[in-house]
Write a structure and sequence with these properties.
By secondary structure, the protein is an alpha+beta fold. Helices cover 31% and strands 22% of the residues. The strands form three sheets. Strands 8, 9, 10, 11, 12 and 13 form a six-stranded antiparallel sheet that branches. Helix 1 packs across helix 9. The structure holds adenosine-5'-diphosphate and magnesium ion. The site of adenosine-5'-diphosphate has 19 residues, from strand 5, strand 12 and strand 13.
């Protein structure tokens, strides 16, 4: 292995800033343990100047959310002639947007929930879809801003004006039919799907706290699901990775309605900058197939250098 000078981009100002700092520092420690020289960059508006000053051999992108996952930072690095890990500009623009992702993947045969864009001001008038349904921002992550509107009328029926939810912060929302059942996820590294993890929140649903508080969600690997579901998740995650043109690693999130067999499996989204924190799912799946955290980080570096 050649020792490189690698800049690790982390932090930023998205809702996932803290997660990204944890991902970035984990990655930076691993790179140092592998013998690379590391410059840690907490991204601010001066990111171009910092990257130019560092002049690294490679940038490890550990950002989550906008603008590190939406193509903006990728475009900047393209213009600066910097090599970087993970997906490029066009893939990032599509994958961060849950509507564009459907427009690309559904015609390619990937099952995703139907959905439509609604003006958030309109949700107080009438339900955009029959209950239960989900309202979520088009381009956030980590379950930020996701609301599950149930038959029981948890936000009021119609949604009350003083109820707290994403309609307060976002002009437009994606409304999707709620897929009952189970929460599954599959990481892809290079040309290989690593496996399927089931996420079982100990209470409630898989929201921000369930994702990032140690012990709040049980991770079951391999997921205790029929073999055809495991195979379908792995095939669909790999297909989504390829159709979108992802590079390095990605992670596909699924819901599976276990009363409907394989017809109940739906891809929710593809994460092109999946979490790399100690609790994160991609490192966990890698570990289960015998790849340590530093080995995973090195594999992502190698993928970036190959392309
Ligand atoms: N259509 C849906 N049916 C059931 N649950 C959903 C649906 N959409 C989102 N969720 C729940 O919200 C979580 C976050 O949604 P997701 O689309 O993965 O966005 P992100 O992870 O980017 O916030 C999912 O893991 C799932 O628990
Ligand atoms: Mg998700």
């Amino acid at each position: 292995m050649t020792a490189l000078h690698i800049a690790v981009l982390m932090g930023g100002w998205s809702a996932e800033r803290e997660v990204s700092l944890s991902s970035g520092n984990g990655v930076a420690d691993a790179l140092e343990s592998l013998g690379h020289r590391v410059t840690r960059i907490d991204m601010g508006p001066d990111v171009a100047a910092k990257l130019a000053a560092a002049a690294p051999d490679l940038v490890f992108n550990a950002l989550h959310g906008t603008p590190g996952e939406d193509g903006s930072v990728q475009g900047l690095m393209d213009l600066m002639g910097l090599r970087y890990t993970h997906s490029g500009l066009a893939t990032s623009v599509i994958a961060i947007d849950k509507v564009l992702t459907k427009q690309v993947l559904v015609p390619a045969g990937v099952p995703m929930p139907g959905g439509r864009i609604v003006k958030s001001a309109d949700v107080h008038g009438a339900d955009p879809l029959p209950r239960p349904y989900v309202l979520k921002p088009v381009n956030e992550g980590s379950s930020v801003g996701v609301a599950i509107v149930t038959d029981a009328g948890n936000y009021g029926n119609p949604i009350a004006r003083d109820a707290t939810g994403p309609w307060q912060e976002f002009d437009e929302l994606l409304a999707e039919p709620y897929v009952r059942g189970r929460e599954l996820t599959t990481a892809v590294l290079g040309d290989r799907a690593l496996g399927v993890t089931e996420l079982r929140p100990k209470s409630g649903w898989y929201d921000y706290d369930a994702k990032y508080t140690d012990g709040m969600t049980e991770h079951i690997f391999p997921a205790e699901v029929p073999d055809e579901i495991t195979q379908a998740c792995m095939a669909l995650a790999l297909q989504a990775h390829r159709v979108l043109g992802c590079r390095g690693t990605s992670r596909s999130d699924f819901r599976w309605d276990d009363e409907r067999g394989v017809d109940g499996l739906f891809l929710l989204e593809v994460n092109t900058q999946p979490g790399m924190t100690p609790l994160s799912l991609v490192p966990e799946q890698a570990r289960h197939i015998g790849l340590s955290y530093p080995e995973l980080v090195q594999a992502i570096v190698d993928e970036a250098l190959r392309s």
